[in-house]
Prior knowledge:
The chain is an alpha/beta fold. It has seven helices and seven strands, in the order E-H-E-H-E-H-E-H-E-H-E-H-H-E. The protein is globular and about 45 Å long. The model has no long low-confidence stretch (mean pLDDT 94).
Amino acid sequence: MIDLTGYVALVTGSSRGIGAACAVRLAEAGADIILNYCTSRSAADQVAEQIQALGRRVAVVKADVSERDDIESLIDFIEERFGRLDIIVSNAASGGFRSMMSITPQNFVGTMKTNVLALIQLVQVASKLLEKSPGRAKVIGLSSHGAAMAVPMYGSVGGSKAALESFARHLALELGDRGINVNIVRAGLVATDSTSKLPYADMMFEGRKWRSMTGDRFVEKEDVANAVLFLASPLSDMVQGETLTVDCGAQVHV
């Protein structure tokens, strides 16, 4: 059993979906949690109630992780309130669903700031705090199947996730000797509020039955959270700069 008692974890974009599942899973393993949200305070408060019921310390912090000032304030708060930070789960994402031909410079920059630059700046700002972790600190970014395959109306987000995976490898190269592991979890198609709005969502979810290599069981947000838990734990100390795919084997074959 993974025991994260005494650890402190920040999960960005954790008011719902995969982010919320990751926060709850880390709390179940014993970690104290900083929930980050940008717009959904009521949803974040509901997640906080679940974590409090587990007997963990929890804080709910509004911050736009695409903005450096907000990240600095967030990390300052964590240091003041908790005195340590051992785990960062960079889950917040944006970009919307649109064709490649309709991507604007504003959309491109906004997507990259939230989906890629946020991870880089979180690590830059929090590095000194992470280096104080008694064990190896863990930074985990959330990617998606669109990083490795073309998905209709998903080019903006998918391209940013591919960049995220590359930047994570380069961060691992620089931070490994400083006691910090950087890895990625690439999630397959998971039913969330966000994916339900994907163009052709019904067709893609129906197609899972033909692509799955795990029988009738498909990936759920809790499965992604379990992978995050592993990478956040000492069991993954020797896993560095990797992308762990959780997709029922869908990307293994045509």
